[in-house]
Amino acid sequence: MTYSSRSNDQLAARVAQDIFDGASVNLGIGMPTLVANHIPQEREVLLHSENGILGMGPAPQAGQEDYDLINAGKQPVTLLAGGAYFHHADSFAMMRGGHLDICVLGAFQVSVTGDLANWSTGEPGAIPAVGGAMDLAIGAKQTWVMMDLLTKKGESKVVTQCSYPLTGIGCVKRIYSDLATLACTPQGLKLIDMVEGLTLSELEARIGLPIQP
Amino acid sequence: MINKIAMSIADALAGVKDGSTVMIGGFGTAGIPNELIDGLIEQGAKDLTVVNNNAGNGDTGLAALLQAGRVRKIICSFPRQADSQVFDALYRSGKLELELVPQGNLAERIRAAGAGVGAFFSPTGYGTDLAKQPDGSLRETREINGKHYVLEMPINADLALIKAEAGDRWGNLIYRKAARNFGPVMAMAARKTVATVHEVVELGALDPEHIVTPGIFVHQIVKIDRVATQAGGFKKAA
Lengths: 213, 238
Known about the structure:
A: 3-stranded mixed beta sheet; B: Glutaconate Coenzyme A-transferase; 3-stranded antiparallel beta sheet; 6 helices
C-alpha cells in the first residue's frame, strides 16, 4: 500500500488538534508558527511570545505593522483583547516556572528519550545563537517537537543519542512529524499515530529504531 | 527637589568611563534606545562590555557602536540574525568576545543583580555546552528535589540605556507594547540608568497603578522625538 506524508499545513493541523481549550502555548520560530492558523475556532488558546506578550494575535494587515509589537522572530503581530505585555524576566518566569502548558519547537535531532538538539549544528566557524530555545525546552509542562522525520539527505532526525549540541535533556514528550506522531519515553519511542497506508515496520525501517505500538 | 530630567543626551551620558559594562534594552529593534547609543558613540567611552539580547541590526544603533570599535565583549542570547553583518565580521575576525547566554538566564541574571541576589540555580542549560565555563570545565550544578540546576551569577552594570514611552521628573516610567522587554530589569541592575521617553509628564499624571518602572531605578530621563520603530532582525527586513 502507498502512503503520502503530511504537508506542513497538515502537520500543523495535527499538532493543533492536540492543543486543548484554555491552553497557554508558545510556538517556536519557523514551522511551529504555522500551528496558530489551525487551532479550531471554538478553542480559546493563549499564545505566548518570549519578548513579553501573552494573548498574541495574528499578523496585522498590510500597512498596519507596528514594530514595537513583534514576535520572537521579530515579525509584526497583533494583541488580542485581554492580552498583556510584561518584561523579559516575567516572560521567562512563565516558561521556567512551568506556567506554559505546551511549547512547540523545531528540531535538528531528538533522541528516543526526549533529548533535544535544535540550537546549533556545532559546525566550526558558525556563529552561535541560542535565544530562548533552552528555556523553552525545559520550561513548559509539555514540550512537543514538530519536524520532518528525515533530513534532506534522508537521515533520521530521531536518534538514539543526539550528535548535535544539546538544547535540553529528556525534555521532549512528543514528536509530530510528516509521517507519524511519536511519544518519547524513558523506555524509548512509542507510536501515537501515523499517516494512512504506512506500516509500523516501514516506519521503524525509515528511522532505524524500534517503536512500541 | 528631585529632577531627573536631563537637558540633553550628552548631559545624561557625561562621565561614562572606559571599560564600563553597559546594558542596552531592546529585543530585535523594539525598545533599542538608538538615540542613547548614538550619544554613547559621541561620548567616546571604549573597551565596553555590552549586554543586549542581540548584537545589532543593520549598521545603525548597536551595530554602529560595534563598528566604531568601542566594544570589547558582548553578553547576549542571539547575536546571529539576518542583518547582523557587523557583529558577524567582528566576531569572525576575533575582535569581539562573545558570552552566549540562554535568554531567560540572561534576563534572570540581570534581575538578580538588581534584586541583590548573590547567585541562583537555573534548570535552563543543564547538560548543555552553555553550562560550561569558557575553559570548557563544567559550572557548579546541584540536584534539588530530583531536578538538575546550574549556578548562574548576576550581571551588574555601570550603565543601563533603555527606551521608554513616558516618564516624570521622579523617574517613573511606562513603556510601549513589546518594546518593554529588557527595560525594567536592566533599569534595576545598573548603577546608573538613563531612559529616553517620548513624553515627559507632570508628577501624578502617570497612574500609580500603571507605573512599570518606579523612579528609584532610574537616574536620568531624556525626551526624544518619536520615530517609528523600524523592522529588523528577519530576512525580509534585512
